Amino acid sequence: MILLDPPVWPFRDQLFSHLASDTSIEELHDFAGATGLHPRSYDGDHYDVPASRYDEVVAAGAVPVSNRELLAAVQRAGLRFRKRRGERPLASIVNGLPSLGAPHRLEILRSPFEAPPESTIAAVTAVTDADSRLLLVGSPKRGGWECPGGKREPGETPRESAVREVAEEAGIELAPDLLARVGYERIRFAGPVPDPQLHPISHVAVYGAQLESIGQDGIGPEGQPVVWLPPEQVWDRCGAAPWWPLLDRHLFG
After folding, report:
1. Is Chaperone among this UniProt entry's keywords (predicted)?
2. pLDDT band at 12, cuts 50/70/90?
3. In a shared domain, residues 243 and 198
4. Are residues 17 and 118 in the same domain?
5. How many CA atoms lie within 13 A of 95 on its CB side?
6. Closest Cα partner for 108 from 96, 91, 120, 122?
7. How many domains does the chain have?
8. Are residues 100 and 191 in the same domain?
9. Which domain holds residue 98?
10. Cα–Cα distance, 244 to 253 (Å, whole number)
């Protein structure tokens, strides 16, 4: 069921309602798409609906409820999306990383904060060159093109892991303290974790790095193809990836 609370939430001189599902995020996205809500009005476990569209959304099938009723329904369904002030939820995907081999929910956040280091299992870096082209590495094992990244080694900080992966996959040396925070992936397992190196709530740190030089296509130190693409061409290589919403925000704002 799709639920809509009263338009009492202020933002930029407007009042907004929260549109949510008591069943699934997929149901929420389907309804929002059918009613023409902008994808960027999605906020983790709800969509923000301007007061001017309240009656229209109710007419489309949303059930009016109180603020408390909506929150309770979202919590009962296990759909509550936790975030810190300043973070922006971008996606919530059931079993978004099939290679993990266990039921989970993948949550993607843009964030000005570091991912929790104690539960960060991997790190990824979006590297752009002086022409604002993005570095992508071909990975047959992972099935496609990705920003350089990989598992965190024992004793490494997430930033140290990030710069090591860039060096190994693309042959580029970066300074850990110059990496910019982009956000993180949060993996919430529904049951026992499938690997002792994982945590019930695991994180993948995502950083950004800007080069002053021009990148060169070629083959990386580990034998993987390396390409530099203008932002408008990146979607063709990895737009179907579950983490695309975060890269999209990083590239296009």
Report:
1. no
2. confident
3. yes
4. no
5. 6
6. 91
7. 2
8. yes
9. 88-252
10. 13
Structural domain includes residue 82: no
Model confidence over 56-85: pLDDT tens digits? 999 999 999 999 999 999 999 999 999 999
Pairwise CA distance, residues 85 & 87, whole Å:
6
The whole-angstrom separation of Cα 31 and Cα 42 is 12
142 has pLDDT over 90: no
Residues 219 and 102 in one domain: yes
Torsion angle defined by CA atoms of residues 110, 207, 119 and 185, in that order, rounded to the nearest 10 degrees: 40
Structure tokens at 189: 């397992």
Global pTM value: 0.90
Measure the CA–CA gap between 185 and 241, rounded to whole angstroms: 13
Whether residues 174 and 70 share a domain: the answer is: no
Asked if residue 124 and residue 47 are part of one domain, the reply reads no
**Together in a domain, 56 and 105:** no
Q: Which of 43, 76, 109 is the last residue of a domain?
A: 76
